[in-house]
Design goal:
Blueprint: E1 21-24, H1 30-35, H2 45-54, E2 60-67, E3 70-80, E4 91-99, H3 108-121, E5 126-132, H4 136-143, E6 148-153, E7 155-156, E8 159-160, E9 166-172
Parallel strand pairs: 4-5
Antiparallel strand pairs: 1-2, 2-3, 3-4, 5-9, 6-9, 7-8
This protein binds coenzyme A.
Length: 186
């Protein structure tokens, strides 16, 4: 499936260790963010600038992984109202994570998820996430955080899915990984 990372349960990460700082995005990150080639959406530099400005509000988050000055990935979370048409539930959602292909399988996706769950845990006791049913890599990444399938749909929060089906997941935030774990594993 174009844009998705090849699902391989056996492959491991980078040969060399990666040490990343997971931090909020700033306007200094605009050029690298605008250079990301995204599978599902197209975002201009202005779109990113708008997202960075909005990420200063309390109901949304935009993180980057800074590897010695290189932006190796980004991840978002935000609050969504119940969708008036497809009835996607109201709540805090993990709304997208992308890691540059040469930094994949080194723990950055996991670090982004830990950091976003810590942020949501301060605001809610549950978290939502949805993915294309064919994106097995994304689904595998999220399973270890306790996400359970709620329902399958052609449209979720207005998003349609290449191949036709998305899966809505929910997790309780009673327990989980701690804030100290937000750096990529050595
Ligand atoms: C999904 C994505 C963000 C994962 O990022 P990552 O930094 O490579 O993920 P991590 O290294 O933190 O992997 C954590 C766990 O996820 C699972 N996983 C990650 N990549 C995998 C792959 N290619 N195949 C199978 N499982 C995988 C594994 O369980 C992995 O743990 P392990 O390495 O100890 O086995 C990355 O593949 C990506 O950017 N994909 C394209 C964009 C995308 O589909 N985003 C999700 C949209 S909902």
């Amino acid at each position: 499936m174009p844009g998705f990372a090849h699902f391989d349960p056996t492959a491991k990460g980078l040969a060399a260790p990666v040490s990343a700082v997971i931090r909020g995005a700033t306007h200094d990150d605009l050029d690298p963010l605008a250079a990301f080639k995204l599978a599902v959406v197209t975002r201009s530099r202005d779109d990113w600038a708008d997202m960075i400005d909005k990420s200063l509000e309390d109901d949304r988050l935009l993180l980057v992984a800074d590897v010695e000055g290189e932006i190796a990935g980004f991840a978002q979370a935000h609050f969504l109202e119940q969708h008036s048409v497809d009835h996607g539930p109201e709540g805090f959602y993990l709304t997208g994570v992308t890691v540059l292909s040469n930094y994949r399988r080194a723990g950055l996706g996991r670090s982004f998820t830990v950091a976003r769950l810590d942020w949501i845990r301060q605001r809610a006791d549950e978290v939502w996430y949805f993915a294309n049913a064919d994106n097995r890599t994304s689904i595998q990444l999220h399973l270890e955080f306790g996400f359970e399938e709620v329902r399958r749909a052609q449209v979720l929060h207005g998003v349609t899915f290449d191949g036709g089906e998305g899966i809505l997941f929910r997790a309780s935030l009673d327990s989980g990984a701690s804030r100290e774990e937000v750096h990529a594993r050595p």
